[in-house]
Design goal:
Elements (H helix, E strand, L loop, with lengths): L14 E3 L6 E2 L9 E6 L2 E9 L2 E4 L2 E4 L19 H7 L10 E6 L5 H17 L3 E4 L7 E5 L5 E6 L4 E2 L2 E2 L1 E4 L5 H11 L15 E3 L46 E3 L15 H10 L32 E4 L2 E6 L2 E7 L5
Parallel strand pairs: 6-10, 7-8, 7-9, 9-13
Antiparallel strand pairs: 1-2, 1-10, 3-4, 4-5, 5-6, 10-13, 11-12, 14-15, 16-17, 17-18
């Protein structure tokens, strides 16, 4: 079972997808890049340093303040006032307010690509309570731009990014399919890849001998993450297939229950994708009447040293906290209304 602590070779600048079946394939050879060690969700990885506090990990771009100190250890039992939680306050992976992705299309895309962007947005908005709004003057938004390549490919920043002058982007090739764009929107919502779940070894076996050496890091366990669903989703929109970054020697991943290759994403949101999104971004009832202001901590129990699930809330030293996939988010001070 593979659980290396470092990348063994260079990864591609972006994750490339084939035009025929939307499977990730190897990128062209690139000049040597500057790689550094970073602690991402409790696992030490070699990530490409793009400068200015921006780093590349497969098709994900990550900002400096989304990493932990190299010696930090994440535990699901951590109290909200740990160093990990303090980093979370400083912006680890920010969710979109009001379930709404604010976007700006800033490249001269073909009508076909514009149609695919709309189809991907419709996939999310028709099955979940994720909404999309074209930017007017919002400070937090995601730029949708071209990566300059003629490919079915994409990359995206994780979550809401407004860091050191950088605004988050979704970068697309000129042939990007609706499926690829749906996947990249998942990263914008803050989701990593399904095969990186902390509990993935309970469901799948990684076969490193069948993976391209420059892609081994994309099969690391994200040891500090908290899954949004109770079981791994073999066909999640965020799941690689058993051929993704394969070297031709066999499947990259097999299921533990039947030994069969992992199917991977089928190009659309699954029932578990929807269920997990409903945890991270609970549906909004626009018909709810706003009650009189109340103490935000009313009815919320004090933190106890036990495992908490995503969405659980606790009070701790006078503050209200909510558990998210990568730690605790401080909502506000007790005694105030929200």
């Amino acid at each position: 079972m593979y659980n290396t602590k470092k990348w063994l070779a260079l990864i591609a600048l972006v994750a490339f997808w084939s035009c025929d079946n939307d499977e990730l394939v190897e990128s062209p050879e690139l000049p040597e890049k500057n790689f550094v060690s970073k602690n991402f969700n409790g696992t030490i990885l070699e990530v490409e340093d793009l400068g200015g506090g921006i780093y590349q990990l497969g098709d994900m771009r990550i900002t400096e303040n989304q990493f932990l100190p190299l010696d930090a250890v994440i535990s699901p039992y951590d109290a909200p006032d740990t160093d990990f939680a303090k980093l979370n306050q400083a912006d680890r992976i920010r969710k979109w307010n009001n379930n709404t992705i604010v976007y700006s299309i800033e490249s001269n895309f073909s009508q076909n690509l514009l149609d695919n962007i709309q189809a991907a947005m419709d996939e999310w908005s028709s099955k979940t309570d994720i909404r999309f709004k074209e930017r007017t003057n919002e400070g937090d938004y995601v730029r949708i731009i071209s990566n300059g390549a003629t490919c079915n490919c994409g990359s995206a920043y994780l979550g809401v990014v407004n860091f050191n002058g950088f605004i988050g982007t979704i970068e697309l090739g000129s042939n990007s399919s609706a499926s690829v764009i749906t996947h990249e929107i998942g990263h914008t919502l803050g989701y990593t890849h399904e095969q990186n779940r902390a509990d993935r070894d309970n469901y799948i076996t990684i076969l490193p001998q069948n993976i391209l050496s420059n892609a081994l890091g994309q099969y690391e366990v994200s040891s500090g993450s908290i899954p949004l669903t109770s079981t791994l989703d073999y066909e999640s929109i965020m799941m690689y297939t058993s051929n993704t970054f394969g070297n031709g020697n066999g499947p990259t991943m097999v299921r533990n229950d039947n030994g069969q290759p992992v199917a991977g994403s089928q190009g659309e949101l699954t029932a578990l994708d929807v269920a997990g999104t409903n945890v991270a971004y609970p549906p909004i009832d626009d018909t709810i009447t706003v009650p009189d202001p109340v103490d935000i901590c009313d009815g919320v129990a004090e933190y106890q040293r036990r495992r908490y699930n995503v969405g659980d809330r606790v009070t701790y030293f006078g503050y209200l906290w909510e558990r998210e996939p990568t730690g605790w988010r401080r909502i506000g001070q007790c005694g105030t209304s929200n």
